[in-house]
Specification:
This protein has helices spanning 3-11, 21-30, 85-90, 111-120, 122-148, 151-166, 182-188, 193-205, 221-226, and strands spanning 32-36, 41-43, 51-57, 60-65, 71-77, 82-83, 97-100, 104-110, 168-170, 173-176, 209-211, 216-218. By secondary structure, the protein is α+β, with helices and mostly antiparallel strands. The strands form three sheets. Strands 1-8-3-6 form a four-stranded antiparallel beta sheet. A hairpin with a 2-residue loop joins strand 9 and strand 10 (173-176). Helix 4 packs across helix 5 (122-148). The structure holds adenosine-3',5'-cyclic-monophosphate.
């Protein structure tokens, strides 16, 4: 991206809202653009890290990976979202890995440059804190599901959450276009792909959901809610 394009992009990023024209110029001049192919790891958990990343194009999943390669998705981030703020702020190693879900472009900003922006703009610190709180809330809820719910209960809850956050109400029910692979959906529900498939089939047989290649339709929300146990 040319400097001018980077500046225009930064002006649309909520985190940087309210900077002066000179500050956008300065930030654009210190951003480094990097592109990653689908499936490429942008940063590895436990590595040292001193940069903040902002997604300019594509989608990134934040994952923790077990020694045997199994991965658990903590969050999925998209256009204009940021990540890498934790190591940048506390100086500890990366708390998780970040993997490109599609061909993705990110802008990276060094700790030194970002701290300069932070010192001059307290609003940015507040926005980062708000985002960290939201992510922690999400993770707490997720942990609660892993600790207390059965696998069908977790799948039911993930479907209800997706329906509420991104579903489309239709006469048939709430249509969810997840944009996720079954493996990703299973990982978010904290289960295996095989178990997810079995549970979805059971829900379908019981008339709670309809399963298509690209969509999942919640037909009976109350019935699904009763399965969150
Ligand atoms: P950092 O620890 O520097 O590198 C990994 C990044 O993943 C981290 O900063 C956050 O930006 C992001 N991250 C870590 N945990 C979560 C989570 N639970 N939900 C969403 N994003 C997270």
């Amino acid at each position: 991206m040319q400097r001018e394009k980077v500046r225009l992009f930064l002006q649309e990023v909520a985190l940087f809202e309210g900077l002066s024209a000179a500050e956008y110029d300065e930030l654009a001049s210190v951003c480094r653009e990097r592109t990653f192919a689908k499936g490429h790891t942008i940063l590895y958990g436990d590595d040292p890290g001193t940069t903040l990343f902002v997604i300019a194009k594509g989608s990134v999943k934040i994952v923790v990976v077990a020694d045997d390669g199994r991965e658990h998705i903590l969050g999925i981030l998209g256009d204009k979202d940021f990540f890498g703020e934790m190591s940048l702020l506390d100086g500890e190693p990366r708390s998780a890995s970040a993997v490109a879900r599609d061909a993705s472009t990110v802008l990276s900003i060094s700790r030194e440059d970002f701290q300069g922006v932070l010192r001059r703009n307290t609003d940015i610190s507040l926005k980062i804190l708000t985002t960290i709180c939201q992510r922690l809330r999400h993770t707490d809820r997720h942990l609660e599901a892993l600790a207390f719910l059965s696998a069908p209960g977790r799948v039911a809850r993930v479907l209800l959450d997706l329906g509420r956050n991104q579903g489309e109400k239709t006469a048939k029910g709430t249509v969810i276009r997840t944009g996720m692979t079954r493996q990703e959906l299973a990982s978010i529900a904290g289960t295996t792909r095989e178990t997810l498939t079995r549970v979805l089939m059971e829900f379908q047989e019981d008339g709670l959901v309809d399963i298509d290649r690209d969509t999942l339709t919640v037909r009976k929300e109350d019935g699904l809610r009763a399965r969150v146990v």
